[in-house]
Amino acid sequence: MDTKVVRIDESHKDEALLREAGEIIQSGGLVAFPTETVYGLGGDALNPASSRKIYEAKGRPSDNPLIVHIADMETLPAIVKSVPETAKKLADAFWPGPLTMIMEKSDLVPKETTGGLDTVAVRMPSDAVALSFIRAAGGYVAAPSANRSGRPSPTRASYVAQDMEGRIEMILDGGDATLGLESTIVDLTVEPPTILRPGFITGEMLRQKLGRVEEDGTLFRADSGQAPKAPGMKYRHYAPEGELVIVKGAAAAVTDYINGRLLEGRRGHKKTGVIATDETIAAYGADVSRSVGKRADAAAAAKGLYRILREFDDEGVELIYSESFDGEGISQAVMNRLLKAAGHRVIDV
Ligand code: TXA
Ligand code: MG
Fold first, then answer.
1. CA 1 to centroid of ligand 1, rounded, Å
2. Residue 41: in which H helix or E strand, if any?
3. 28-50: per-residue pLDDT in tens?
4. H/E segment holding residue 259
5. What secondary structure does DSSP assign to 11-40, as a single string?
6. Ligand 2: centre distance to CA 312 (Å)
7. Gap between the Cα atoms of 270 and 276, Å rounded
8. Beta strands of 133-222 (E only): which ranges?
9. Whether the Cβ atoms of residue 315 and residue 274 lie closer than 8 Å to each other
10. What pTM value is reported for the model?
11. Cβ atoms within 10 Å, residue 268
12. Are 321 and 164 in contact (CB under 8 A)?
């Protein structure tokens, strides 16, 4: 299959291209599209065959449910049993935007889309191209992140092409994703509502609207002993080709420790990498050094993390040390993804 890659952006929104993309979805094909979080691999959410194709293109187990993307609030009632009050409040505050809500599904949504579950994950993205595309596609686009299973979520169209060339009909190139990490997922089918994946819409923001909101105990610890509630969380997540270790502690101690290990790695003829911040990057002696930006700028770290991880793989880095990102809000989402990529290997110095 030839994958057509087309450049499209808000200011040059090409109606004919969007119509073409929409028709591909409506006839059962797949189109990757930009969202404000990461690129999605879209298919018709109401067509079981399309969902099967998504799993195949991704190389993803079919019991891992997909997020259904919508563009208008009026389209929500048809795919859920009922719209909970909590969903109305959160939609008012955070949609369109980087929030996914889990609700009881209606019969319209096939089990192929929800990985066999009776619940459905729904998100209304804020990206203007995404919204136009979803409408052109008939209103319900099932989309996981557009990476092949085991790769970081793609934050630009060229990364989608690396993973999906020849496997899907079209890639809509809308430039770099503005946020860079996947949406927050909140389960509204349980009491209290529970965060299954941290993101830009933080626990604090959700609590302001709903009162009590819990966090799934598996989000930050590998040894919590609990089964993860989002099926996707149980799979081995993206892990870089090289060994990734997070180092935690006072800044100077972290730099010293990492430099010691880097030296050791290089003596062992390993290609080394480091993930640091603008404040510290110059202090490291790695083969490939990458800064996520200023330490205080968690949004920059979120935006750059997946790109950096892909670059390490592309450069064949074998041993990677990363500074730790503690803090509230977006830092938690950054740390959650970093911990997964590191297989929860953290060293306290
Ligand atoms: O930002 C995002 O959410 C991106 C863009 C494309 O919208 N999408 C995304 O999809 O990250 P994906 O498939 O890579 O991650 C979806 C996660 C998986 O961990 C999956 O298990 C969970 O959502 N999920 C989906 N439906 C669920 C459900 N009914 N119950 C619990 N977890 C669910
Ligand atoms: Mg994903």
1. 27
2. strand 40-44
3. 999 999 999 999 999 999 999 99
4. helix 251-267
5. TT--HHHHHHHHHHHHTT--EEE--SSS-E
6. 19
7. 19
8. 141-142, 170-173, 184-187, 194-197, 214-215
9. no
10. 0.95
11. 10
12. no
Rounded to whole angstroms, the Cα distance separating 110 from 117 reads: 9
Question: What confidence category does residue 324 fall into, taking pLDDT thresholds of 50, 70 and 90?
Answer: very high
What was the pLDDT predicted at 9? 76
Confidence grade of residue 149 (pLDDT, cut at 50, 70, 90): confident
DSSP string of 91-114, one letter each residue? HHHH-SSSEEEEEEBPTTS-TTTT
Ligand 1 neighbours (beta carbon < 6 A): 35, 37-38, 40, 64-67, 100, 102, 114, 117, 119-121, 123, 125, 143-145, 182-183, 185, 196, 230-233
Asked whether 34 and 87 are in contact (CB, 8 A), the reply is no
Longest dimension (CA), the chain: 62
Residue whose C-alpha is closest to residue 181's, from 304, 90, 269, 283: 304
Is residue 155 within 8 A of residue 38, CB to CB? The reply is yes
DSSP, collapsed to helix, strand or coil, labels residue 185 as strand
Q: How far apart are CA 194 and CA 192, in angstroms?
A: 6
Strand partners, 255: none
CA dist., res. 306 & res. 246, Å (int): 16
Query: pLDDT tier at 287 (50, 70, 90 boundaries)?
Result: very high
Q: Helix, strand or coil for residue 178?
A: coil
Give the whole-angstrom CA distance, residue 41 versus residue 110.
18
Mind listing the pLDDT tens digit for each residue in 201-240? 999 999 999 999 999 876 666 555 555 566 666 555 778 8
For a ligand 1 pocket test, name from 100, 118, 229 the mutation site with the most ligand atoms within 8 angstroms of its C-beta. Answer: 100
Whether residue 274 contacts residue 284, with contact meaning beta carbons closer than 8 Å, is answered with yes
Write down the residue that tokens 């993205």 correspond to. 125
